[in-house]
């Protein structure tokens, strides 16, 4: 595969986490394979995560750091979102980021509706979701119907045109051996090298 423009969003609100290790592993391998990579860390972004209203008119002005994230969503060929599973979903600050930056006119066009959905504007891009969790993947599928995966894949990324999107679920982190963790980081590196 030829070199790609890759955005990596480390969606953990803290530093020095396994989510960061997954992001770093992906980034290092992708850059080493010649891909053009940009990494944003949620922990370093300063913004108000509260959208603050029910409608889009009069939305808050984007802070410079999250304007840069949105610009990189527009720039990228491939979008990677890594996050920890907290209470069955993504951390609140990450959801707040999506609330703030995925706006009409930039990421979708509500004036053009097909089958009840607005026209997506971030088309021609693929996505990868990396989920770090204490919930093992088989339990995530059988008991929770992969709800967090569906939210990010379909209700967020697909909604704005990023398609296809594939998810890798790494867990259970609690009690995982160093060998298991190394294997998961190896998987992230393999994906990064391929740019998928």
Automatic annotation (TrEMBL):
Q: What is this protein called?
A: NAD(P)H dehydrogenase
One Pfam family hit: Flavodoxin_2
- Top-level taxon in the UniProt lineage: Bacteria
Which terms in the GO cellular component ontology are assigned? cytosol
Give UniProt keywords alphabetically.
Oxidoreductase
**Gene3D superfamilies, per database record:** 3.40.50.360
GO terms (molecular function) for this protein are: NAD(P)H dehydrogenase (quinone) activity
What InterPro entries does the annotation carry?
Flavodoxin_fold, Flavoprotein-like_sf, NAD(P)H_dehydrogenase_qn
SUPFAM superfamilies from the xrefs?
Flavoproteins
According to the entry, every stretch annotated as the Flavodoxin-like fold domain falls at 5-181
The family assignment reads: Belongs to the NAD(P)H dehydrogenase (quinone) family.
């Amino acid at each position: 595969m030829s070199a790609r423009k890759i955005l990596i969003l480390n969606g953990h609100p803290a530093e020095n986490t396994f989510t960061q290790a997954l992001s770093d592993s992906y980034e290092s391998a992708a850059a080493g394979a010649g891909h053009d990579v940009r990494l944003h860390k949620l922990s370093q972004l300063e913004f108000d995560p509260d959208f603050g209203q029910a409608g889009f008119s009069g939305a808050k002005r984007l802070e410079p750091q999250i304007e840069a994230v949105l610009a990189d969503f527009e720039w990228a060929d491939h979008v990677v979102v890594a996050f920890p599973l907290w209470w069955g979903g993504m951390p609140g600050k990450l959801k707040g980021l999506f609330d703030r930056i995925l706006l009409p006119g930039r990421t979708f066009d509500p004036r053009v509706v097909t089958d009840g959905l607005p026209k997506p504007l971030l088309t021609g891009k693929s996505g990868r979701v990396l989920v770090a969790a204490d919930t093992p993947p088989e339990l995530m599928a059988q008991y929770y119907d992969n709800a967090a995966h569906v939210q990010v894949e379909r209700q967020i990324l697909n909604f704005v045109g990023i398609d296809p999107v594939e998810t890798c679920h790494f867990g259970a982190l609690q009690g995982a051996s160093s060998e298991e963790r190394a294997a998961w980081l190896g998987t992230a590196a393999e994906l990064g090298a391929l740019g998928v």
